[in-house]
Amino acid sequence: MEIERKYLVAALPEGYSSFPSHSIEQAYLCTEPVVRVRKEDDRYYLTYKSKGLLEREEYNLPLTGEAYSHLLSKADGMVLTKRRYLIPMEGTTLTIELDIFSGAYQGLCLAEVEFETRQDAESFVPPDWFGRDVTFSGEYQNSRLALKKS
User: Fold this and answer.
1) Which of 28, 68, 85, 105 is catalytic?
2) Around Cβ 72, how many Cβ atoms within 10 Å?
3) Which residues are 60's β-sheet partners?
4) Nearest residue to 7 via CA among 77, 69, 82, 99
5) Domain of residue 10, CATH code
6) Do residues 55 and 3 lie in contact, with contact meaning Cβ atoms separated by under 8 Å?
7) In this predicted model, what pLDDT tens digit does every residue of 58-86 receive, in sequence order?
8) Which structural domain range is residue 16 located in?
9) Distances (CA, A) of 88 to 5, 130, 139
10) How far is Cα 111 from Cα 100, in angstroms, rounded to an integer?
11) Across residues 107-128, what is the average pLDDT?
12) Any catalytic annotation for residue 68?
């Protein structure tokens, strides 16, 4: 089960680029339910996500580079590219996933935080730099973004 909140970042935090990061490329074979292929650095995955905004089932299966390339050619919409910074949230065990997009969404910045329970997610108080909470609008789900500007 994935339980996460998502925010449209208002201003990048100082020193974000000093944290570990990953280069991500992903595309969607289906958006309802979500079936995604992702390249993260030199690892490849097929992901299934059920319907939902705050809370949904998620399964990741490893792929070979060859299988990833084959499936990528069958994707709908565009391939999304971004750099994901992993920022520990001070005073907690939480990690902020800060995504800075390139390509068609150059300059778009989103922050996500995953939680153990729905209650933890609902009581979360984000840092000021997070900006607008877009968890429940769904407008910044990556599966929607991939289809918007294609």
Assistant:
1) 28
2) 18
3) 47
4) 99
5) 2.40.320.10
6) yes
7) 999 999 999 999 999 999 999 999 999 99
8) 2-148
9) 15, 14, 26
10) 9
11) 96
12) no
